[in-house]
Each structure stands twice: as C-alpha cells, then as structure tokens.
Amino acid sequence: MSTATHDETIAAHVTGQSFRMLIGGEFVDAIDGARLEATDPSTGQRLTDVPLGTGQDVARAVAAAQEAKAGWQALGLAGRSACFAHFRDLVNENRERLAMLDAIDCGNPISAMRTDIDICNAYLDGWPALAQGLTGDVIPASPGNLHYTAHSPYGVVGRITAFNHPVMFAITRPLPSLITGNTLVMKPSDETSLSTLALAELFHEAFPPGVVNIVTGNAATGDALVVDPQVKRLAFTGSVGTGLVIQRRAAESGYVKHLSLELGGKNAMIVFPDVDLDLAVEGAIYGMNLDVCQGQSCGSNSRILVHGKVYDEFVSRLAARLDEYRVGVAYDEATDVGPVVSRAHLDRVSGFVESGVAEGATLVRGGSRPAGLPPGGHFIEPALFADVALDMRIGREEIFGPVMSVFRWDDYDTMLAEANGLDLGLTASVWTNDLAIAHKTADALEAGYVWINDSTRHYFGTPFGGMKNSALGREESKDELLSYLEQKVVHTRLGDPRAALDRILG
Ligand code: NAD
Fold it and tell me: What is the chain's mean pLDDT, rounded?
C-alpha cells in the first residue's frame, strides 16, 4: 500500500470525525475542554484528539448512570436482551469502520480486527442466554420454614479497559454487568480510545440514555472512577501494577468495593517430545497472538518450554515460520504483524531484546527494525530467543510484545518448577499426545486457563482468569454474571399450618 493510500484510509475514517464522550445520552467534550492526542502507531503521526475527562466528567457520568438505573432494571431481562440484539446488529453493520479504527489507532492488523468483531457475536448472544438460566436457591436450612436466595444488581459499575483489543473489550466486557441490570461508566485506554468513542454512537442508539456512559482519559480519569462513592463494583483489565494501585485506591476511598481484575501473564507453553512438531510450532505462533496484536496479549505464550529431544528442531522450525510473517502498516491488507502501540512501548520492548542478549540468551532472529516501513512507525521484527532461563528478564517479566523465549528442559519436575516459578499464572498450554501426561501436567500447572494441544482460544461460558497475581475473579462465564449481582437471603417463618387452618377455616 502506498503512502497516498494510507492517507486516504486516515481521511476516510478519522479526519473530520468528531470523537466525543457519551454521558447521559449526550455526546460531550470534557467540562474543562482538555484533550488527549491520538497517534497512529504505523506512522507515529498525530491522528486527532479526544476528550481528556476529569473527575468532574466522571462524576457527571456516574450521576447519569445512577439516574438511568431504575428504568434499566424495570425493563427486565427481556427488555434488556432486546437492546443487546439491536446493539449486535449495529456492531455488525459497523464492522469495517470499527475494525479500521482499531488498526489505525492501535496498530493491530486490519484482518485480525475484523475477526475481533466477529468474535463479539458469541458474547452478544451468549450473555442474554446465560442470564436466562440464572436462578436463586431454596435452601432446606430449617424444618418448617422457607429460605431462599435472590439477586440484585450493584447499581453503577465502573469498567476500565486495556489498550490491546480496544473495540472487542469495549463491546464484550460491559455486557455481563448490563444484562444483570447494572448501568455503566466505561473508560477505555488513553492510548486507543477512538473505536470506543465510535462505538458510543451504537450504544446510544441501542440502549436508553445513561445506561452506558463513556469517559475517555488517563490514569487520573480512571482513578476518579475507582474512588467514586457511588461505584460499588469495579472491573479492570490491565497491568498488575495498575491493578494493585486500584485495589489500594478503592480501599482508600473509604468504601468497600467489589473488584474484579484481569491482569498480566507470562504464560508457559510446554512441549513434550512425542508431539507433532509442526502443530506445536503453529500453536506457538498462534498462542503468541503474533498476527493479532503483535504479542501484546495477556494470554500470549511468551515462555516456551521445549524438551531437549526436540529442542533444536523446534527452534529452527519456529524461526523458519517466523521468517514468513510480514511486518507492516496495520491497515495494509497484506500485513501479518503491525507496529506496537506507542514509541514508549517500542523502546520498552527493544530494551527487553537488549537485556536478553546482555544476559546470555541466544537471539535466533528478529528484534530489530524492519526496513522499508514508515520511519515514525513503531515496528519491530518478531524476536525469537533460545537458551532462555528463568533468571533472565526476558524469561520472567511480561514484555507484552513480539518477543518469544524458548527454554530447554530435560527433567519433568524441574520443568514444572520453572513453569510455576513466577508470581503470574494466567494461562498455559500442554503439547503431547499422551492423555495421562497431558492431564497430570494441566493439573500441576498454576494457571487459571490451560489448553491441551491448543492455545489462546476462548470459549464463551468457560471461566477465564488467572491464579496468583494474574487475576481476581473470573470472566466470560456464569461466575462473572453472579459477580455483578449482590446476593440476599430471605427467610420466611411459616409457623404451624394447623393453627392457620383453624383460623381460616374455623
Ligand atoms: P495499564 O494498566 O497501563 O492500563 C489499563 C487501563 O488502566 C487504562 O485504561 C489506563 O488508562 C487505566 N489506568 C492507568 N492507571 C490507572 C489508575 N491509577 N487508576 C485507574 N485507571 C488507571 O495496562 P495496558 O498497558 O493498557 O494493558 C496491558 C496490560 O493489560 C498487560 O499487563 C496485559 O497482560 C493486561 N491485560 C490483561 C488481560 C486479561 O484479560 N487478563 C487482557 C488484556 C490486557
């Protein structure tokens, strides 16, 4: 694609568009008029700017969500499901526009961003269906009395999202809070807000005013949402560091808040020597989310632990396959791997590559800037390291970029200790044809989501989340629906029915 065509893409999707926040059914700028710059990772050039919301804007959004609460709850599950169905149609009608905005603003390849939107359909259909099955319990806690449980929504939910799947997160992550009758204030990442602001128009069309409010901004904007006394339930997707700050700030607000956190990973892929190596190599690339978001995924298998018997062959086949991946401008249809999200992140990822070399790992390929691409773009050729050890920074820290680290193992117990040797425990995958080894290993891994001979795929209805520092709570499942509901137990003393019969029948 030529530079002229790139310019046309930006002109068609960004130039002249107004990107405003959605508060109480109105499209607004920040009260103080502050703006935040949006940059194209493929060129490093300024695209446009978006409102930089302050505490005042957050307060306004929370008040709007409070006001909309009663009406939204009164609609019942059927009424809310009808809004979901309308929203689903609008999302699909706007697929190309939303996907293109993510490619332009976030740097993920356009083809992958179309798939991200297609994936949303399972969630848009799935949450109303799952909510239909929600029941309370009747508990035989004492003879002669009735004890039952009931659920009610928290009220206003605050949702803060990460930069890496902007529109997919903005579409899917609010859904369980909404279907259970909560209203919402959502803050997307300051690095990738454009598609969420475009989506605001669709939320506005499909949902009553005030049910979904979108405030753009930075850490201070998010913090205002975290400490707002009326936001009892907070849901966060982002880094461990920010997750910990949010836990602390929520407590400092003086209110007890219910939090769910989806945080980082340094996920182990374990390769046994009996497996079809080509399948495992494809799985390594697929599981890295390399051609989806440049490895900027919480679930990426950035640690690959390969048995010594097949180690050399695995590394050389993986390097050969990576050679076929084309790095390029995100909105170029031929691109497999786009730029990383920002200049600062590129510097960070490059710093990890340098540290890997300095600490003695073998850089098999990649790690440098590919030629022939726009000079301001944040491009890096996917790096493959071999001979990585757990005490190297690339072996233990979440890089969140296109850097794959291969470890060699010979002893099963030592390998397991390495796989479990970090404070993170989001996902893992096990690659073997032996059923007993596969399940024994899955059982021993300290990770919340484990695939056997597969990777990265989410299946709606199965609880997604991590152990250790990777998460608090589970998403995409009945567990998550219940997490947006407060539980109440009702006890009814029935008394002696004979006395009642005497009274009524005489
Ligand atoms: P981040 O923590 O820097 O930012 C996430 C969001 O938090 C942004 O919207 C940001 O503006 C906001 N924020 C920052 N400081 C805040 C504060 N003090 N109070 C309130 N809000 C604040 O994360 P990121 O760089 O956007 O995303 C990358 C991280 O997210 C990685 O660690 C990745 O593993 C994780 N992630 C996890 C999942 C998951 O499902 N487990 C999914 C995607 C990303």
Answer: 97
